[in-house]
Amino acid sequence: MEATSTVQVDNERVLVTHWRLAPGANTGFHVHERDYVVIPLTTGVLRLEEPGGVVREVPLEAGASYAKQAGVSHNTFNGGEQEFSFVEVELK
Fold it and tell me: Any alpha helices (H) in the chain, and if so which ranges?
């Protein structure tokens, strides 16, 4: 099952996307081409599959944002029993 995404803003400076992951859903393997900020809207644990088959679990708390630089590659899974959602802001 794949995650759903809704683009909220796409202009010359930012791309803002609302992501929703049902239990068991994933984003698909991808590489972040831009620096980005993630704002979790719910609290939970996401499972990240990284290159080479490395899997790690990341606890996230609603409202506790984090930032990453371009080049991150992973597939994000919701291994929980509740929907997980977050807003991703990509800097252009």
Answer: none
Query: How is residue 33 written in tokens?
Result: 């081409």
Determine whether 90 is exposed, middle or buried from the number of CB atoms within 10 Å of its CB (0-12, 13-18, 19+).
Answer: middle
Q: Decide yes or no: CATH 2.60.120.10 for domain 4-91.
A: yes
Question: Measured between alpha carbons, how far is 20 from 73 in angstroms, rounded to an integer?
Answer: 19
C-alpha span between 52 and 49 (Å, rounded):
9
Question: Would you state the pLDDT for residue 91?
Answer: 98
**Buried/exposed 1-36: b ≥16 CB within 10 Å, e otherwise:** eebeeeeeeeeeeebbbebbbeeebbbeeeeeeeeb
- Give this prediction's pTM: 0.93
